Amino acid sequence: MFGAAAAVCAALYSAGAQSLESRIAARVLAVTTMKPDTVRPAPVKGLYEVVVKRRLFYVDEKVEHLIVGRIFDAATETDITAARIEELSRIDWKELPLQDAIKVVYGNGERKVAVFTDARCTYCQMLEKSLRETGNVTVYNFLYPILNSREVARNIVCAKDPAKALQDHMLNGTEPPAAKCDDSVLDRNLALGARYEISATPFIIFANGSRVTGALPSDQLNRGLNLK
């Protein structure tokens, strides 16, 4: 009997909490015109965490105050907000359409990483060289032509061996010969990048979902590649 009563109370509490968070979401939308993706209690009593398109801020229960800033644990000086933002920024590896990427394997390829890369991006070329030096990695390259590079990107994806054409271009500066094919994969890559709000290359996604922008050197790549 007591077990059943406890279950009912727990269910009622859960429903109440959900109802409160739904009301807060509706109030945020009404006040700011931003539609929350999630609302949940914040680490500070009386505040609620609101996430809108991976952007995070805090509100009180009545949404009379909106707080944009960071919450630290006073005892450990840990940046709780930063940890939460990193968590929200992770990309689920299983969601990546790897069939649209050009796969390049260095060494035994036991580790894996995805890179949004532009064929005219100097930093992307630097990253490719660092990946080769790092070794033991399978690189899924999503050609992302945002630097007036649609033509060379098309020549790479339409090449007889796209992986070789990409490596020859990025590592040795060899221009791929003109080629034509259905290059709609480039449009899909651009749409995917827009979804992830990628505005610069190279953009790196490690297997654990963490993301970094820039040409990381080999030591930093190794740390990211070894993360679980």
Q: Write down the Rg.
A: 23 Å
The structure class reads alpha+beta
Mean pLDDT figure: 91
Overall shape = elongated
Count of β-strands: 9
What distance lies between the first and last C-alpha atoms, to the nearest angstrom? 45 Å
Instruction: Extract low-pLDDT stretches.
Output: 8-13
Please report which band the strand proportion falls in: under 5%, 5-15%, 15-25%, 25-35%, 35-45% or over 45%.
15-25%
DSSP helix fraction: 40-55%
In DSSP terms (H or I, runs of 4 or more residues), the helix count works out at 7
> In what order do the strands lie side by side in the largest sheet?
5-7-6-8-9
The ordered H/E elements are HEEEEHEEHEHHHEEH
Largest sheet: 5 strands, mixed
In brief:
This protein has 228 residues and is α+β, with helices and mostly antiparallel strands. It is 41% helix and 19% strand.
How would you characterize the overall build of this protein?
The two termini are 45 Å apart. A hairpin with a 5-residue loop joins β1 (38-41) and β2 (47-52). α3 (122-134) packs across α5. The chain has 7 helices and 9 strands. The relative contact order is 0.11. It has helices at residues 2-32, 80-89, 122-134, 150-157, 162-172, 184-195, 218-225; strands spanning 38-41, 47-52, 55-60, 66-67, 102-106, 111-117, 137-143, 203-206, 211-213. The longest helix has 31 residues, at 2-32. It is elongated and about 60 Å long. 41% of the residues lie in helices and 19% in strands. It has a 5-stranded mixed β-sheet with strand order 5-7-6-8-9. The chain has a 4-stranded antiparallel β-sheet with strand order 1-2-3-4, with helices on both faces.
